[in-house]
Amino acid sequence: MDIAVLTPDKEIFSGEITSVKVPGVSGQFEILSNHAPLVSALTEGEVRILKKDGQKMNFNIEKGFLEVLNNSVSLLVQGLKE
Amino acid sequence: MGANLKEVRERIKSVKSTQQITKAMKMVSAAKLRRAQDAITRMRPYSNKLNAMLTNILSNLDGDASTSFGQEREIENVMIVVVTSSRGLCGAFNTNVIKAALQTVAEKYQKQLDAGKVSVMCLGKKGYDSFKKRPEFKLVTDYVDIFSDLSFDNVAQVSKQLMDSFENKEFDAIEVCYGRFKNAAMQFAEADPFLPVTKLETTPGETKMKADYIFEPSEEELLKHLVPSILQIQFQKYLLDTHASEHGARMTAMDKATENAEDMLKDLKISYNKARQEAITRELSEIVGGAAALEGGS
Predict the structure, then answer these.
(1) In a domain, B21, yes or no
(2) What is this model's ipTM?
(3) Closest chain B residue to A11 measured between Cα atoms?
C-alpha cells in the first residue's frame, strides 16, 4: 500500500509500505494492507513505518490526522520531531 | 555654461546608480517571490487533504457541524489582525492593507471602536508603524516580527493564541486584513472574517462516492480536532499570501522605478548634449571672432 506523509511545510515521505503504526487519540493502532476506509485523529506519540523494502522509519509527532482509502494512506502530521 | 554641463553629468551619474539599485532589488524580489510561491504550493497537498477529510465528515454528519469556533455571539470586543510587510519600497501595498483594515472597522465595528474595544494585532512592522499613531486602537505587538520565521509551527502559535482568546470570550470577532496574492502583478488587500467560522466549507460540486469510512473517534470528536487545524492552515495561508504579495508588489514597484529612471536618463542625455553643443558653438564663435579681430588689426 502507498503512503504520503505530509506536514504543512512539506512532504516528508511517500512510497510503498508494508505497515504503519500510529498513536490514535484513543490508543495506538497499526494499519496493514487492505484496511477498511478510515479517518482518525492522532495524538502525541511515535509513528512507525515499515517500508516495503524492509527499512524502518520512525518519528515523533505532536498531533495529526490519518486517512486510509483504497490502500493508500495519507498521514498529516503537525509538530514533527525526528 | 561649463558648470551646467558638469551638473548634468553628475545627475546622470546619480540616476544611473539609482537605476542599478532598483534593478537589483527587482531581481531579488523576483527570486524571493518564487520562493514565497513555492511555500504556498508546498502547503497545498496538506490543506487539500485536510479539507477533503472535513468534507467527508460533514457529509456523514449531514452538515450539522457546530463547534465552539462557530459560535456567534453579541460582538463586544473585536480583534483585527493586520498583516503587512516589514519592509517598505513596495508601492501602495501596505497602505492598501491598512486602508482595508480601517475601512472594515468603520463599516462593521464603529460602535465597538467608540467604546474603545477594538484591538489590533500587527504582524509585520509597517502595520505597527501606522497603527501606533492611532491611539483609539489597542495594540497587540507580540508578533510584529513574525515574518522572520514563517514556518508552520511558529505561525501556529499566533493562530492558537487567537483561537484561545476567542474561546475564552476575550474577543467576539476576529478579522484578518492581508494582501491576497493573485499573481505577481496583482494583489488585493482584503479583510477576511477569521472567527467565528461563518461556515465550514465543503468543496462543492464534488459528488464523490461516499466511501464507508470508519471514524476514529466519533465524527463529532474528530471535528473538534480537525477544525483548529484547518483554521491554523488558513491563518498560515494569510501569512504566506501576504509574503508573496509583498514581493510581487515590490517587484512591480521596482520595475516602474527602473523604467522611470530610464525616462529620466533620456531627458538628461538630451539636455546634456544640448549644453555640450552650446558650449562648442560658443567656443567656435569666440575663436572665429578672435581670428577676425586679429586679421582686421594686421
Answers:
(1) no
(2) 0.88
(3) B42
The answer to whether position B288 is within a domain reads: no
Within 8 A by CB and 6+ apart from A77, the residues are A5, A6, A7, A12, A47, A61, A64
C-alpha distance from residue A54 to each of A2, A17, A23, A51, B150 (Å)? 14, 9, 21, 5, 36
Could you tell me which residues are beta bridge partners of residue B121?
B81, B140
The enclosing domain of A73 has a CATH number of: 2.60.15.10
Residue B205 DSSP class = T
Q: How far is A58 from chain B (nearest CA, A)?
A: 20
Q: How far is A51 from chain B (nearest CA, A)?
A: 22
Output the nine-digit C-alpha cell for B89: 519600497
- For residue B226, the tally of other CB atoms under 10 A from its CB is 24
* Residue to test with chain B: of A76, A77, A82, most B Cβ within 10 A: A76
Asked whether residue B19 is domain-assigned, the answer is no
Number of domains in chain B: 1
d(CA A19, CA A37): 15
What are B133-181's pLDDT values in tens digits?
998 898 988 889 889 888 888 898 999 999 999 999 899 999 999 999 9
CATH value at residue B120: 3.40.1380.10
- pLDDT at residue B205 tops 60: no
Ranges under pLDDT 70 in chain A: none
Query: Going edge to edge, which strands form the sheet with B118-123?
Result: B138-140, B118-123, B78-83, B173-183, B186-195
Triad B182, B183, B188: Cα angle to 5°: 40
Q: Which residues contact B76 (CB under 8 A, 6 or more apart)?
A: B112, B117, B172
Chain segment B45-70, per-residue pLDDT in tens: 999 999 888 888 887 776 556 677 88
Q: How many domains does chain A have?
A: 1
Residues 6+ away with beta carbon under 8 Å from A43: A23, A24, A25, A63
Domain membership of residue B200 as a residue range: 31-253
User: Which residue of chain A is at minimal alpha-carbon distance from B237?
Assistant: A8
* Residue numbers of the domain that contains A15: 2-78
